[in-house]
Design goal:
With about 160 residues, the chain is mainly alpha-helical. About 65% of the residues lie in helices and about 10% in strands.
Length: about 160
């Protein structure tokens, strides 16, 4: 029986580092579950939300740039953009200097959805960390930044 998601009866992590990674996996899985549940209520997938979020933060982009940032195949991006375009959330237009490329932009409806998702995410963050004092939160962010750096370095060295 699970005492906690990351602790199985009788299991003792070998080190604090192993215990920390166990907890990161648990947080990752649970946050992913919450995100998917919230997005499903809006009729959108996590992958489509990622494209919308990138366009909201970075502005119009080529499909190639989107595929590189999201680390998915160009074919995958084409499918995502096709679906989002069909829903009226993005539009495609000509690239100003490369006639082989197209630029993907948020439509008014896409920008409104992005703003709603951002507001909801911000409100969730405020609730999630409401009981955490500012110094602890800064330490947590620093630790997570370090973990992200280690993960990115690992990902880049495996290429």
């Amino acid at each position: 029986m699970l005492d906690r998601f990351y602790e199985v009866d009788g299991y003792q992590p070998a080190t604090d580092a192993v215990a920390a990674l166990d907890r990161l996996w648990a947080v990752s899985l649970r946050l992913g579950e919450l995100m998917q549940r919230g997005l499903a209520m809006r009729g959108i997938t996590l992958a489509r939300a990622a494209v919308i979020s990138l366009l909201a933060r970075g502005g119009p982009s080529t499909q190639r740039a989107l595929s590189l940032v999201l680390r998915v195949t160009p074919r995958n991006i084409t499918g995502l953009v096709d679906a989002l375009e069909g829903e009226g959330l993005v539009s495609r237009g000509p690239h100003p200097s490369d006639r082989r490329a197209t630029i993907v932009s948020l439509t008014e409806a896409g920008a409104a959805l992005a703003a709603t998702l951002k507001r909801e995410q911000d409100a969730f963050a405020e609730r999630l960390f409401a009981q955490t004092d500012p110094e602890t939160l800064r330490t947590f962010m620093s630790t997570v930044d370090n973990v992200l750096l280690q993960v990115e370095q690992r990902l880049n060295s495996d290429r």
